[in-house]
Amino acid sequence: MSGGPGSEDVPAPTVAELVERVLDGPDPARIVQAGHPVLRTPAQRYDGGLDDETFGELLALMRRTMHAAPGVGLAAPQIGIPLAIAVVEDPGALDPDVLRVRERPPLAYRVLVNPRYAPVDDERVSFYEGCLSVRGWQAVVPRYRRVRLTGQDETGRELDEVVSGWPARIVQHETDHLDGTLYVDRAVTRSLVTDTGLGAALASEPAPTTAARVLGFPPA
């Protein structure tokens, strides 16, 4: 049924148009929050559809946005762009106990294009994590301790490597974003805490031992 003059469907913007809008917008970019459909839609494989200058500008904006948040990873859908691209970078843990228990060394800046991961074995570890697109909350998430990462970097070079510890957690978290999966989908829901006050104190422990005891979920 016609809706009258001016009711024609407006074509959805192309990915290139979305990228241009984001690049022309605020810097750092706005990070979309849970409830936005782009976070629940598998991202499109990136096959070089952007010119080199635009692609470089997008990666630079993603890195600045990640730093400003601050975070240790950012996937393109988190700024509204449905492309299978993520950036990661982590200064590592300053607390020696956290460094040891969580296996959280510094992770140099890198770009992941069309990343995929597969477990190396069945070993999982459970720690608190949060997400820039689910602000205000943290929860315990069981993740594979070691994964095989495949995909490409920003130059198109093929990636095929094993990552472990906290870097493996970051890879899994960001790659999940590109499949439309949020960390809360994998979380131990009873562990959910706010990222301030008592919740922040519980989540800051090297392992979620106290949280498991006082909140009543199985210890890691």
Task: Please summarize what this structure is.
With 220 residues, the protein is α+β, with helices and mostly antiparallel strands.
What key phrases describe this protein's structure?
220 residues, alpha+beta, Peptide Deformylase, five-stranded antiparallel β-sheet, 6 helices, 8 strands, 29% helix, 24% strand, globular
Task: Give the topology, please.
Elements: H1 15-24, H2 52-68, E1 73-75, E2 85-90, H3 96-102, E3 107-119, E4 124-129, E5 137-144, E6 146-152, E7 158-164, H4 165-178, E8 193-194, H5 197-204, H6 209-215
Antiparallel strand pairs: 1-2, 2-3, 3-6, 4-5, 5-8, 6-7
Helix pairs in contact: 1-2
Domain count: the total is 1
Strand content: 15-25%
CATH class: Alpha Beta
CATH homologous superfamily label:
Peptide deformylase
Major beta sheet, specifics?
A: 5 strands, antiparallel
Structural class category: alpha+beta
**Averaged pLDDT, please?**
95
Number of strands: 8
The coarse silhouette is: globular
**Structure annotation, total helices:** 6
Question: How far from one another are the termini?
Answer: 57 Å
What is the H-and-E element order? HHEEHEEEEEHEHH
What is the spatial order of strands in the main beta sheet? 1-2-3-6-7
Cofactor: Fe(2+)
Catalytic activity: N-terminal N-formyl-L-methionyl-[peptide] + H2O = N-terminal L-methionyl-[peptide] + formate
GO molecular function: metal ion binding; peptide deformylase activity
GO biological process, one term: translation
